[in-house]
Amino acid sequence: MNINPTMPYANLIQPGDNPDLTKERKTASFNLWKMQCFVYEGEEVVKRRKEILEFVQSTPEFNDEIPAEFLSREEVVDRGARKAVVMTNKADAIDTSDFFGEGMYYQSLVIGRDLHSMSLHYIMFMPTIQGQSDDDQMDEWMGPTAARAFLGTFAQTELGHGSNLTKLEATATYDPKTEEFVLHTPTLTATKWWPGGLGKSCNVAVVMAQLYTNGQCKGPHPFFVPLRDPETHMPMKGVTLGDIGPKFGINGSDNGFLIFDHYRIPRRNMFMRFSKVLPDGTYVAPPHAKLGFGTMVFVRSIMIKDQATQLGAAAVIGIRYSAVRRQGEINEGAGEVQVIDYRTQQFRLLPQLARAFAFLFAAYEIKTLYLNVTEQIGTGNMDLLAELHAVSSGLKAVVSWETAQGVEQLRLACGGHGYSRASAFPDIYTYAVGGCTYEGENIVMLLQVARFLMKCAKEVRIGNAKLADIGAYIAKTDSGKSHIRSWRQCSDEDIIHDFEAVARRMIFASYDRLKSFETTMTKKEAWNKCSIDLCKTARVRELCEL
User: Fold this and answer.
1) Where would I find the Acyl-CoA oxidase C-alpha1 domain in this sequence (predicted)?
2) Is the predicted pLDDT of residue 375 greater than 90, yes or no?
3) Known catalytic residues?
């Protein structure tokens, strides 16, 4: 199909289409081609997406004879692994590492929402190699990682701890006599739990463990850890691992568990771009405490775009269904109408479509911020690191929650048909709702944002605020009164002004309440007392960013 940019609906109308869909497309008030180019950041990107789509459609190994809905979990995992191998082997002309662009699009077309055993290899393992390795480690590990001789995952979450990283229990104790780290799982709750691809597939992992050297704990640090014999694929001596079984969704990924029994790795297997342990056990601290969070921030920025894509897919299904579904009469005797003509249906559908666009553009902004901060870190400038961590945490929380709620509303808008797995809603929902938990449970993320906001409020109050552009409104001193007199005449600037005024007012109200409680109880007790208000404040701040 050749694209004709002069056509307002870009040749979407094909013979045999439902006439109601054709009618809706012909009455579009905008040029779809221009819209696509705007949404996907350029004409060349849109053309490239078309090329990738045609490539996937023409590759026999990617065409499923049996829909995933009718397969067992074992069959889903097996098919996902096979397709992932074909996907990477046939990807010479596709940048699979570009998870903001064609890499994510290519994978979504081939694998869908069940993911596969190599998902974390590309999303988390490889970015950690790139972001946390020193030059020698990069030379040693990146080649085999890119060639998939190393098939990796990211093992951080434990059975007993997830969001509270400072309390992870797995240990890495340095032995200066042998210049090795001894990895150990001291308790049942220290078992690594959930890493994708760990159950059956991965042979190495980035493992987060509490670093002990010279008798002192230096907190969680990442380590490059071989898990399986490269010849037999059996676990190394001192390593126990396996699959954790079926999940609520995303069952194409073999999520697993991992236990260490005094398992030794070389000293140089600690990632040493920012922090180091010297041969004698001397610890060299990183220049900034949050430098090690780079991989998490990167993944959260990808998540925001991924969640926007899921909400957009659900909106397309719901809106198309509503265009072809006819039910009831508005004017008696005129015949049944498309359900999309009901205001109540529009009220359910259209805000979700708008949110999908807003989330997508937010993803582009967070990507740009991430790349800028990464570049600044390379020059020793850490000024925006805390802001990046707060923004990525908050947007991840708000976007994933709004997406999950939006998908459910769109499912309900499709009546009984939305309850069928054939509608795709169940798989979209179970995929999207996972984002409310992984890479940081949403309430915990909002509280992290709130802690950052309380620090900003304190700095503003004492006249020492140094806020980046993205949060500069917190220090504004205008009255906060709305400039809007009529919704028909308000400008974008008026709307932004009002959002900022509400967010600023809530930030300082929460700060004052917190300080008031701190006069009668400990700081931690006061924080817990105010936590609901703090979450609401953080949420409003992120809605302001959106």
Assistant:
1) 293-454
2) no
3) 439
Q: Is 194 left (phi over 0), alpha (psi -120 to 50) or beta?
A: left
CA dihedral 456, 459, 461, 467 (to 10 degrees): -60
Q: How far is CA 488 from CA 29, 30, 492, 495, in A?
A: 19, 21, 12, 12
Instruction: For the chain, list the domains and their CATH numbers.
Output: 40-116 (1.10.540.10), 151-286 (2.40.110.10), 293-440 (1.20.140.10)
CA distance 328 to 331: 9
Instruction: Say how far apart CA 260 and CA 237 lie, in whole Å.
Output: 9
Beta carbons within 10 angstroms of residue 487's beta carbon? 8
**How far does the chain reach from its first CA to its final CA, in angstroms?**
36
DSSP state of 272: -
CA dist., res. 246 & res. 76, Å (int): 11
| CB burial string 273-306: b at 16+ within 10 A, e below | bbbbbeeebebeeeeeeebbbbbbbbbbbbbbbb
Angle at 411 between CA 351 and CA 67, to 5 degrees: 130
pLDDT, greater one: 476 or 205 = 205
Q: Kindly report, residue by residue over 10-67, the tens digit of the pLDDT.
A: 567 788 889 999 999 888 888 888 899 999 989 999 999 999 999 999 999 998 888 8
Question: What per-residue confidence (pLDDT) applies to 8?
Answer: 52
Element (H, E) at 223: strand 216-226
| Residue whose structure tokens are 């008696």 | 332
Higher local confidence (pLDDT), 370 or 194: 194
Token pair listed for 149: 């001789």
pLDDT in the model for residue 292? 64
Q: Measured between alpha carbons, how far is residue 33 from residues 9, 27, 411, 487 in Å?
A: 7, 15, 28, 30
For the ranges 145-149, 282-286, 475-479, 489-493, the one whose mean pLDDT is highest: 282-286
Three-state SS string over 316-348 comes to HHHHHHHHHCECCCCCCCCCCCEHHHCHHHHHH
**Which residues have CB under 8 Å from 441's CB, separation 6+?**
162, 163
CB 155 within 8 A of CB 220: no
Three-class SS state of 427: helix
Which pLDDT score, from 0 to 100, does residue 96 have? 66
SS3 content of the chain, % helix, strand, coil (to 5): 55, 10, 35
pLDDT tens-digit series, residues 206-238: 999 999 999 999 999 999 999 999 999 999 999
Q: State the Cα–Cα distance between residues 159 and 97, nearest whole angstrom.
A: 30
CA 542 to chain centre: 16
Written as six digits, the tokens of 97 are 């590492």
Confidence band of 1 (pLDDT split at 50, 70, 90): very low
C-alpha span between 113 and 48 (Å, rounded): 22
